[in-house]
């Protein structure tokens, strides 16, 4: 089958899965169809790269015009890597089996919406697909019933996503009015004719619209509550293919629809992405729930990609096409590795829930009690998100810094300072991310406990192991993967940057023509690291084997004269993150509360209840005032519903007078 036919088959299969799941019968069949459609789409992406797909006319019309569907190489790249964890999440049973049918329906709808976002070439159809994708995510979370407050968190998510949808609608109207068309080809012509002010306005509207799903500030504040109300399977879908679809939309808007954008657009995007990344990872470090921590981490990684995309806009506005292509390519590499690693850890979170009946980041000792492939996959995923070599996250973040450091090529001092400050912010982000995933792996999986914890199922262990191996395979095989993006880079920037980003199996920044690694600004080779690091590990293994000749003396730990209890004296998530919480108290504004429960006598305490939290930044100062304002308006407008017939007749009469007046004018 041709790639376009495979994508059409995937869409049909997902529609069938949605109907079957909605009817509540044949859930195994619906799950199988979800997986089958995902595999078909991945195969289509592999067959279509690096050229992209041919145009396909959708057999329906919207507004009297045809609807075209075509996927560019960058869309196929983001979709393919995003679908890998989504397919595995769909293949595994969710922890909330009671809502399985609704979850399958929501997943199928989300995948259909994401496919439309990746391929539709018309503004009206795109907005429908965008809303369908949001609706599917809400259905996934609501159907799982894992949180009593799921309704409130989903409404908060949908409210912020609708703010983004309105911003996108305004941007589409501004781009469609000059050419009297909502086709994306017309958007590019309209964007090229805009002045600097109009380009900045459209760019900010697109940043708000797509940033609502990417978690750009202030929108990342819906992430922990919404993700925390669903399972890890829902998080794997939302943080992979859905997140990648949102980034593709932003990339297409800033690079494709605004081909002559001013540096101001890039500066705004870089600033928003950098500040979002810093705040998101700071709050991720304080989370004690797997889903909340990983959701903030998703916002952080998406924001890093957004900041890199903003650097691409700045380089292009300055005429540095090679560097613009480099920054754009790096953003795609970063999201590819993030999709695989984050999907693995979200599935690991579900494994923790099934074993310990809680998503808390607490001592479970699961790595010792489970099959070694599970531990290997989780380790590789955590290493990647912590930017440790030789994983994909290390390679992409190395490229991010190499790109930002090229800011000295920009012609103005202000632009150079923007990228220098962004580099400092991203460095802080990388440092806190390292500590965050040390906490996840060290406490959440390695921590010893005497509690009874069941072993992880073979299917979940295999899925986590497969995604972990894909993370390191992406890094090691990156020289072979990079040519897949060359066509898109050539079409958008007129350069072949992906081909200049490696010399053989050595990766270089790709700032110009391919050169010898020893003359490059910097170079790494994850392919060689994958070979060298196991060999180097033989040294400590040999030292460990040598120590077996000597007896090991073990001394008990002093517990202040109390009975020894290693589990109670071990490091917890709170103690691990408390130092940073104290240092950044001006951001966190931490709260500590201790409540005493008694039998009525103040001197006989039954229990002490200790609670701690960090205060959100935008909630009390932005969202809460808006909520109060909306409720105030609703209270005033509700008076219209008086129930008096004469009042309603008066309103109808006034409306007729207005219509007649407009007609006479």
Automatic annotation (TrEMBL):
Topology in the lipid bilayer: Multi-pass membrane protein
Lineage: Bacteria, Pseudomonadati, Pseudomonadota, Alphaproteobacteria, Hyphomicrobiales
Keyword Nucleotide-binding assigned: no
Protein known as: Proton-conducting transporter membrane subunit
Presence of keyword Membrane: yes
Transmembrane segments: 6-25, 32-49, 75-94, 101-118, 124-142, 154-177, 197-220, 232-258, 264-285, 292-315, 327-349, 370-388, 417-441, 453-482, 521-544, 645-664
Database matches in InterPro entries: ComplexI-like_HydComp (IPR052175), NADH_UbQ_OxRdtase (IPR003918), ND/Mrp_TM (IPR001750)
Keyword terms of this UniProt record: Cell membrane, Membrane, Oxidoreductase, Transmembrane, Transmembrane helix
Pfam families: Proton_antipo_M (PF00361)
Annotated NADH:quinone oxidoreductase/Mrp antiporter transmembrane domain residues: 125-407
Compartmental location: Cell membrane; Membrane
Source organism per UniProt: Mesorhizobium montanum
């Amino acid at each position: 089958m041709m790639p376009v036919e495979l994508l059409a088959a995937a869409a049909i299969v997902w529609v069938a899965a949605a109907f079957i799941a909605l009817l509540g019968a044949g859930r195994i069949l619906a799950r199988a169809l979800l997986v089958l459609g995902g595999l078909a789409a991945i195969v289509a992406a592999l067959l279509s790269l690096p050229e992209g797909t041919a145009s396909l006319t959708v057999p329906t019309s919207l507004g009297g015009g045809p609807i075209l569907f075509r996927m560019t190489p960058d869309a196929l790249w983001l979709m393919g890597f995003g679908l890998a964890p989504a397919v595995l999440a769909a293949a595994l049973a969710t922890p909330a089996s009671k809502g399985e049918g609704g979850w399958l329906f929501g997943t199928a709808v989300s995948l259909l919406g994401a496919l439309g976002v990746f391929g539709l070439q018309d503004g009206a159809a795109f907005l429908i697909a965008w809303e369908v994708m949001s609706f599917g995510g809400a259905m996934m979370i609501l159907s799982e019933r894992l949180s009593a407050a799921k309704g409130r968190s989903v409404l908060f998510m949908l409210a912020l996503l609708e703010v983004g949808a309105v911003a996108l609608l305004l941007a589409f109207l501004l781009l469609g009015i000059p050419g009297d068309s909502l086709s994306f080809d017309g958007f590019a012509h309209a964007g090229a004719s805009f002045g600097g002010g109009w380009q900045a306005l459209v760019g900010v509207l697109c940043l708000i619209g797509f940033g609502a799903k990417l978690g750009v500030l202030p929108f990342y504040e819906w992430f922990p509550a919404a993700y925390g109300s669903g399972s890890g399977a829902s998080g794997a879908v939302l943080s992979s293919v859905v997140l990648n679809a949102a980034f593709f939309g932003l990339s297409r808007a800033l690079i494709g629809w605004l081909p002559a954008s001013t540096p101001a657009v890039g500066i705004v995007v870089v600033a928003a992405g950098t500040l979002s990344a810093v705040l998101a990872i700071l709050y991720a470090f304080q989370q004690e729930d797997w889903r909340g921590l990983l959701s903030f981490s998703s916002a952080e990684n998406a924001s890093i990609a957004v900041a890199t995309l903003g650097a691409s806009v700045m380089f292009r506005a300055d005429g540095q096409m090679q560097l613009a292509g480099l920054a754009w390519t790096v953003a795609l590499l970063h999201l590819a590795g993030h999709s695989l690693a984050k999907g693995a850890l979200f599935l690991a979170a579900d494994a923790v829930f099934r074993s310990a009946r809680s998503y808390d980041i607490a001592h479970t000792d699961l790595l010792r009690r489970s099959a070694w492939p599970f531990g290997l996959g989780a380790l590789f995923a955590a290493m990647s998100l912590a930017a440790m070599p030789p994983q994909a996250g290390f390679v992409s973040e190395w490229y991010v810094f190499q790109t930002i450091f090229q800011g000295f090529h920009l012609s103005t001092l202000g632009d150079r300072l923007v990228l220098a400050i962004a580099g400092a912010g991203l460095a802080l982000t990388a440092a806190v991310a390292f500590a965050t995933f040390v906490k996840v792996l060290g406490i959440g999986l390695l921590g010893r406990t005497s509690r009874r914890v069941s072993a992880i199922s073979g299917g979940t262990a295999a899925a986590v192991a497969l995604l972990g191996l894909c993370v390191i395979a992406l890094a090691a095989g990156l020289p072979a993967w990079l040519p897949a993006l060359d066509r898109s880079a050539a079409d958008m920037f007129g350069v072949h940057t992906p081909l200049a980003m490696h010399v053989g199996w050595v990766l270089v920044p790709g700032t110009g023509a391919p050169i010898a690694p020893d003359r490059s600004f910097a170079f790494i080779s994850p392919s060689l690291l994958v070979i060298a690091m196991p060999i180097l590990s033989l040294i400590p293994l040999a030292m460990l084997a040598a120590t077996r000749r000597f007896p090991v003396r073990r001394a008990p730990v002093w517990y202040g004269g109390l009975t020894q209890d290693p589990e109670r004296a071990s490091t917890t998530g709170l103690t691990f993150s408390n130092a940073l919480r104290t240092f950044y108290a001006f951001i966190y504004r931490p709260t500590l509360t201790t409540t005493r429960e008694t039998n009525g006598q103040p001197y006989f305490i039954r229990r002490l209840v200790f609670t701690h939290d960090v205060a959100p930044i935008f909630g009390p100062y932005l969202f809460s005032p808006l909520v109060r304002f909306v409720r105030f308006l609703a209270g005033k407008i509700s008076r219209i519903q008086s129930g008096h017939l004469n009042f309603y007749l008066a309103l109808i009469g006034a409306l007729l007078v207005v219509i007649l007046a407009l007609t006479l004018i």
